[in-house]
Amino acid sequence: MKLRNGFVSNSSTSSFTCDICLNTESGYDLCPSECGMSECMKGHMFCNDHQEELSLEMKKQIILDYGNLSDSEKKELNIVSEEEIKDWFVENDIATSGYEVPSEFCPLCQMIVIRNDEMLTYLYDKLSTDKKSVTAEIKERFGTYTAFNTWLESIKPSKI
């Protein structure tokens, strides 16, 4: 049991971790949008920068679905540049509202990015193996962590 003397506050510190890049932001009474993150309706937390990975066609469809555009603006949408679409996203702040962002805006829900833990589970199943077997194989093949790490560094640009 902790005993505290003097002023004690009940802090309201919030912390958010991106499910894609694992970047963590924290602060007093912080909401996701204040730290450049959003949470989709399925519960994925992601940095808003990852939305740049959505295709131009996806962005156009999102604008049509959520943009409250007039008929003439909808027609113009077909001829605007990629840069204008990107600017529209930023200006209208439609995809970065913080909580309960529609899944159309989420790079994870759109399967543009797949989390490493989910990818690993998929690969274990696809290769009909498990963590213990893979660990034993790595240990047998490389012998030391240094040798394994050297190999990992040599393949990163091409495989990851």
Model description:
By secondary structure, this protein is mainly alpha-helical. The protein has 2 domains: 93 residues, no CATH class; 44 residues, no CATH class. It is built from 6 helices and 4 strands, in the order E-E-E-E-H-H-H-H-H-H. It has a two-stranded antiparallel ribbon. The chain has a two-stranded antiparallel sheet with strand order 3-4. Helix 1 packs across helix 3 and helix 5 packs across helix 6. The chain is elongated, with a radius of gyration of 22 Å. The N and C termini lie far apart (47 Å). The mean pLDDT is 81.
What kind of sheet is the major sheet? 2 strands, antiparallel
Helix tally?
Answer: 6
Runs with pLDDT <50, length 5+? none
Number of domains: 2
Radius of gyration: 22 Å
The residue-averaged pLDDT reads 81
- The SSE order reads EEEEHHHHHH
Outline: elongated
Number of DSSP-assigned strands: 4
Report the end-to-end length measured between terminal Cα atoms: 47 Å
Summarize the structure.
This protein is mainly alpha-helical and 160 residues long. The protein is 41% helix and 10% strand. The protein has helices at residues 56-66, 71-76, 82-92, 116-126, 131-142, 145-159, and strands at 13-17, 24-28, 37-39, 45-47.
